[in-house]
Design brief:
The protein is α+β, with helices and mostly antiparallel strands. The protein contains 3 helices and 4 strands, in the order ββαββαα. Helix content is about 40%, strand content about 25%. A hairpin with a 2-residue loop joins strand 1 (about 5-10) and strand 2 (about 10-15). The longest helix has 16 residues, at about 50-65.
Length: about 70
Amino acid sequence: MTEVTVTQIGNSKGVILPKEILAKLRVDKGDKLYITETPGGIQITPYDADFARTMEVAERIMREDRDVLKKLAE
């Protein structure tokens, strides 16, 4: 487990990720990250443009076809 501290960054709050964590994520300065809430807590993953587009399509379909999907789940 790695401990980080919330700090002031300009007018915002943020955390500084240790270089070991950045290496494991395979990200560097300027790269984007996903922050996802999961049943087990918060998950941080590297940003993937293809995955982002796929999720946008999935969310749109789930929104538009909510009633059909709910019926299928029964």
